[in-house]
Design a protein that fits this description.
single chain, five-stranded antiparallel beta sheet, alpha/beta, seven-stranded mixed beta sheet, binds NADPH dihydro-nicotinamide-adenine-dinucleotide phosphate, about 450 residues
Length: about 450
């Protein structure tokens, strides 16, 4: 097609990855546009990480109120929870963040094109009837909750709807054993909802270290969540305001809401990619090479839509590497090894590096260090929650290759540990590090006895 193009880079999707790519490119003086048909910020800001974490905070107060009694606090009235206050305050906070995203884009010099974008060919995109041309198109449209089809599946809701419910349910069935299922089960249970988690597999959070995912399972049950493993839902029936789920065990569960957290799929439907040579996998995600280039040379894709690692910080990193590749020195790379991650389940789980099983496959001899203890808060607070920490060490090199934690502040602590592990820390160097006392984190530098 004849130059000049309207833009150097036209990004479809103003989520974490798309906005970062647009801003970085625009700051280099390039002509950049971002197309978005919803609120700015994508899944993370609107129906993901941010509102989820706010809900997690909300759901933890009840236990804190209870623990406060042991520290001398009393109250004449039991605390009351108001769902609409939480939901509406959360909505206000998200609106504030949407505005920050708009300001950041504007300040960078990128143009926001509001409306649904459809790719017309390798260099052109149509938005609300207007065609825009661009040297490069970046598809950063993210993902969308996936609910399998079965009799009554239309009665199930996804995480998207959970953030805007009119009323807090009294009873809930949550389906799935991954991040979203365990996180929402914890939120609902903490807010006082009678919660039943149903998962088809034998172990929740199956991609995590087995010791750790079992601690999460145990902790969730102790807090009152009912968990049915190796169980599927055959159908859901509506009976008045209730939904009745028929389980493969023959049991029937009645609930005010049935949440399906059964994965997220790339948002590529009706995007016009069939007008290009972009290749999709059977699950709708886009195939890209190491530079995020699709099979159509002028079209790139990153973030959840390429289905590598569905995490916000990964999409952001991919965006920075792509902009460096297209418009910079081309020296940066995304290192997919050692990505730290946290599940904001209750108890919280965070880790970096290899699980014990993965390490045993990779190394001849592996040393395991485990520490399990009661957090200080509960010495007077009376709760039964515990903290478990685990280090996986390659005995040949003494390198710490995996670091895992279940318990309060796990995500905060593991972020620091991730730096050490990325830098190639050895167990000996950890042992030589002075702890911060009294803290839970100091256990990571005081583990001397090998568990296995
Ligand atoms: P996950 O892939 O983590 O989990 C999906 C779960 O649904 C699995 O347990 C899976 O079972 C189950 N499942 C899939 N299909 C079916 C089916 N047809 N019937 C019954 N169960 C089914 O997806 P999530 O939806 O929880 O989250 C999506 C992604 O978003 C995560 O993978 C993560 O990358 C990201 N995320 C990150 C968060 C964080 O960083 N804290 C928080 C939330 C999401 P099986 O294991 O048997 O396949």
């Amino acid at each position: 097609m004849d130059e000049p193009f309207d833009f150097d880079l036209l990004v479809i999707g103003a989520g974490s990855g798309g906005v970062r790519a647009a801003r970085m490119a625009a700051q280099k003086g390039l002509k950049v546009a971002v197309a978005e048909d919803r609120e700015l910020g994508g899944t993370c800001v609107n129906v993901g990480c941010v509102p989820k974490k706010l809900f997690v905070y909300a759901s933890q107060f009840n236990e804190l109120f209870e623990a406060s009694a042991g520290f001398g606090w009393t109250s004449s009235e039991p605390p009351q929870f108001c769902w609409s206050t939480l939901r509406d305050n959360k909505n206000k906070e998200i609106k504030r963040l949407n505005k920050i995203y708009a300001d950041l884009l504007e300040q960078s010099g990128a143009t926001l094109l509001e409306g649904r974008a459809v790719v017309a060919d390798s260099h052109r995109v149509v938005i609300r009837g207007t065609t825009y041309s661009s040297r490069y198109i970046l598809v950063a449209v993210g993902g969308w909750p996936y609910i399998p089809e079965f009799p009554g599946s239309e009665h199930a809701v996804s995480s998207n709807e959970m953030f805007f419910l009119d009323a807090l349910p009294k009873t809930a069935v949550v389906v799935g054993g991954g991040y979203i299922a365990v996180e929402f089960a914890g939120i609902l249970n903490g807010l006082g909802v009678n919660t039943h988690l149903v998962y088809r597999g034998a172990h929740l959070l199956k991609s995590f270290d087995r010791d750790m995912s079992e601690k999460v399972h145990e902790g969730m049950c102790k807090k009152g969540i009912q968990v049915s493993l190796e169980t599927e839902i055959g159908s859901i029936e509506r009976l008045g305001k209730q939904f009745v789920a028929s389980l493969s065990t023959g049991e029937k569960l009645s609930a005010d809401v049935v949440l399906y957290a059964t994965g997220r799929r790339a948002n590529t439907k009706d995007l016009g990619l069939n007008n290009t040579s972009v290749k999709l996998r059977s699950n709708g995600s886009i195939e890209v090479d190491e530079h995020f280039q699709t099979a159509d040379p002028s079209i790139y894709a990153l973030g959840d839509v390429i289905d590598r690692v569905q995490l916000t910080p990964v999409a952001i990193q991919e965006a920075m590497v792509l902009v460096d590749h297209l418009f910079g020195e081309g020296k940066q790379e995304v290192d997919y090894e050692g990505i730290p991650t946290a599940v904001f389940s209750q108890p919280e789980l965070a880790c970096v590096g290899l699980s014990e099983d993965q390490a045993r496959e990779r190394f001849a001899h592996v040393n395991i260090f485990i520490s399990d203890f009661k957090p200080m808060l509960h010495s007077l607070g009376g709760g039964s929650e515990r903290i478990t920490m685990k280090l996986v060490v390659d005995s040949a090199t003494d390198h710490v290759v995996g670091c895992h934690m279940v318990g309060e502040h796990a995500a905060e602590i593991i972020q620091g540990m991730a730096i050490a592990i990325k830098a190639g820390v050895t167990k000996q160097q950890m042992d030589a590090t002075i702890g911060i006392h009294p803290s839970a984190a100091e256990e990571f530098v005081t583990m001397r006895t090998q568990a296995r």
